[in-house]
Specification:
Largest interface: A-B, 79 and 79 residues
Number of helices of chain A: 14
CATH class of the largest domain in chain A: Alpha Beta
Largest sheet of chain A: 6 strands, mixed
CATH superfamily of the largest domain in chain A: Zn peptidases
Shape of chain A: elongated
Number of domains of chain A: 2
Distance between the termini of chain A: 24 Å
CATH architecture of the largest domain in chain A: 3-Layer(aba) Sandwich
Radius of gyration of chain A: 25 Å
Strand order of the largest sheet of chain A: 1-2-6-3-7-17
Oligomer: homodimer
Helix content of chain A: 25-40%
Chain lengths: 462, 462
């Protein structure tokens, strides 16, 4: 099917563009309840397209607290039971468009300027999910792909909603997937696609220090009153040294070194230390000097305080010694750190750092382990060649310092080979006014997915 | 005059009580503008009494921003230019009475139960200033006291208003005072009066740590992003060690040891370490173990964090690395620490504690030096004997851990010998519902002031 489908993709670019614009015009803002009907309309639009393309489609309102927008689950098993299954993830919901006055053209009316379509959701994620939808349509219209297809598309990505995680957990047995394409990112630079080989996990804690039974006046009791804020400072300063090395016992024991192939790719990336300092607006970088800045951001664990609550938070002066104070402290975790083991070590260590008269306790607010997609499963080479065919360049292997919760949900429920990448470009202004998406990237993205289907033809099952 | 005035004081207790109740019934709440007229009424009531007693009285609306309630300045120079002058300080304003529902009797309707009068302001400070007013009336009615008299009474004590400080600074040359009685406190225990020999000063600072140009996401930049909150923890933990010893270079150099006479008195006080732990509700006291808890509270300097601003202060989780963060840090100072020198040492030290990529600066919000009233000026013995005559017990020498700003204002402007004490009892519930004041303490307080006038007859000028 490949050559015919590719030819059709090239011949029907106007149609591809018109389709994307139709989807963009539906203002499916998941955060705002007045757009609930629009979210459903976007879901129905996608479900209709996939149905007409020949897939078996379900629009699922997942029961449970917090679920608001339907999941689209589509399936085509025409490649037969021996063929591998490629699933494609995406989300049809978008960020709110505020501030409206900063848009140069209306956020839900696609406007093409200099080869980019400007609109909310044009990149994130409608323009990328449309690559998958169009590729499926074209493949199915031209003999069908050599792999089975599945779509798992949600409408709560921008609000962290529970529907899709709940759905894949519940239906895992019926959602067998060998390869999962998550295209919700950007190229590293124009002409330089990437594949994500890992994402850091997150352990988020709250450390509470409790001193006196009530707030005290520092004039009356200063000198004998335990001060939980001072104690928290002692605790926090003992967690990470001044050079950025974390001092929780055993913290680094399970950290896995990145593969040579990854490190080599990172060295080649067009991102200098100066670039990173400029991007942050800092005079110096923090952290472990023996690791490159990219390695520190992608493959080294961190510990950061996000806020300290308690006492006096206003303008001016107040001489309170608070009865209690809390610090929000999170750790970014890397393969193969175990969140449970890290939390236990953290909590025990924190407990040992209290000062006279103060009780210190750590509580886990959430945790998720790091994701390793692997650099050597057969999908990597299939995707690399697909990128090369469609864009003329092979992807670099990169990582993400943050977590993409859905990758964890998929990995835990379905254990597929993950292909985490993206068709956007740096500067697409996701979540900001004048979000944009390159039409050339879009058209090539459709071809990339077609090539990927073809390249996975004889790929082993996961 | 003494014997006659004392006799009159005893004979006219009903009159003294009626006078106090009249003053209490005026709801002179300085914090609430709807009571502005009441504050003026209270001032006029006192001014009228002192005028009728034979003093020259001015009701002064001090010009300047924030001034709201008049100062009463009264003078009687009948003892002649060679005689010392005793000034009496007090304030006619009171705290708001909320929460009203917790009062067992109306807050501005004096109610006598078990020898106590219950009302807002009964102790703080109307019942104590009334001792001075009644004593002046009785002394002037019976031949006049052997010392010249002055009253300096304000209506902004409970709101930290500027009128009185401004007035004494401006009129210093015309307000010569040898001895100044400030009765706005409580006995150490029933039967155990006290004299304050020192008050700690206060240096209040804000330490700001600045990292990136904007808030950063810890997933993306964690590992290389300077985190001002972590840096502040390093700074704060380096200012005071885990045992409560302040580590700012030179911080203790100028600290003056309390006098033997003071230390001996503190040892005799009926206040155990357990009492103090119970009062605060803590399992252990913080601080320098080689000093007694009272010495730590009264004669040792402190360093406390009152609040840390910046980053995420809400419920739940957010993974921000804030661009900047601030800590409110104050130091209680003791004789003879110089606030300027301490701030300079603090700021220089703080600056040296920054971490890579973070700029740390300290700013002084306010400062005031500690007050030493002295243990050996002639007023101390005069007051001690006056207490003994009126109450049957000599006062202990104590200190106050907090500052009473007016003492600094008086000391800087007038340089008098200070007699800082009080006629209330522990448990009088100042600032709380059901504030009360012992009528016996009141009647004896009038006699104490009469004795004090007599005892100062031949006291040297300040």
């Amino acid at each position: 099917m490949l050559e015919q489908a590719l030819q059709a993709a090239r011949d029907q670019r106007e149609q591809s563009q018109a389709d994307l614009f139709e989807l963009i015009r539906i203002p499916s803002v998941s955060a705002l309840s007045e757009h609930d009907a629009d979210c459903r309309r976007a879901a129905e639009w996608i479900a209709g397209r996939l149905t007409r393309a020949g897939m078996e489609v379900k629009l699922v309102d997942v029961p449970g607290e917090g679920s608001r927008h339907p999941v689209i689950a589509a399936e085509w098993t025409g490649a037969g039971p021996q063929a591998p299954t490629l699933a494609i993830y995406g989300h049809y919901d978008v960020q709110p468009p505020d501030p409206l006055e900063e848009w140069l053209s209306p956020p839900f009316e696609p406007s093409v300027r200099d080869g980019f379509v400007y609109a909310r959701g044009s990149d994130d994620n409608k323009g990328q999910i449309a690559c998958g939808i169009r590729a499926a349509e074209l493949a199915l219209a031209h003999g069908g792909p050599p792999v089975n297809l599945r779509f798992l598309i949600e409408g709560e990505e921008e609000v962290g909603g529970p529907s899709l995680p709940e759905f894949v957990k519940r239906e895992a047995a019926r959602l067998h997937t060998d390869y999962l394409l998550i295209a919700d990112g950007q190229f590293t630079a124009p002409g330089l696609p990437n594949l994500l080989t890992g994402l850091r996990g997150l352990l988020y804690t709250e450390v509470e220090a409790t001193g006196a039974a009530a707030d005290l006046h520092s004039g009356i009791y200063g000198g004998v009153a335990p001060n939980p804020l001072n104690t928290l400072a002692h605790v926090i300063s003992a967690l990470k040294d001044r050079d950025g090395r974390i001092t929780v016992p055993g913290f680094y024991d399970a950290v896995r070194k990145p593969e040579e192939r990854e490190l080599a790719d990172w060295q080649r990336l067009p991102v200098t230390e100066d670039d990173q300092m400029q991007a942050m607006g800092v005079p110096a970088l923090e952290g472990e000097a023996e690791f490159s800045p990219l390695e520190r951001r992608w493959a080294r664990p961190t510990l950061d305080v996000h806020g300290i609550l308690g006492g006096f938070q206003g303008q001016g002066q107040k001489t309170v010694i608070p009865a209690r104070a809390k610090a929000k402290i999170s750790m970014r975790l890397v393969p193969d750190q175990d969140p449970d083991a890290i939390f236990d070590a953290f909590a025990e260590y924190v407990d040992s750092l209290s000062t006279p008269g103060v009780r210190v306790t750590a509580r886990r607010l959430s945790s998720g382990r790091a994701v390793r997609t692997g650099t050597d499963h057969p999908g990597v080479e299939a995707a690399a060649r697909a990128f090369e065919s469609a864009y003329g360049g092979r992807p670099v292997l990169v990582r993400e310092g943050g977590s993409i919760p859905v990758t964890v949900d998929f990995q835990e429920a379905l254990r597929p080979h993950l292909l985490v990448t993206g068709f956007g470009l740096p500067g697409d202004a996701l979540h900001s006014p004048n979000e944009k998406y390159s039409l050339d990237q879009y058209f090539r993205g459709i071809e990339m997915v077609l090539h990927l289907m073809e390249n996975l033809r004889d790929a082993p099952r996961a």
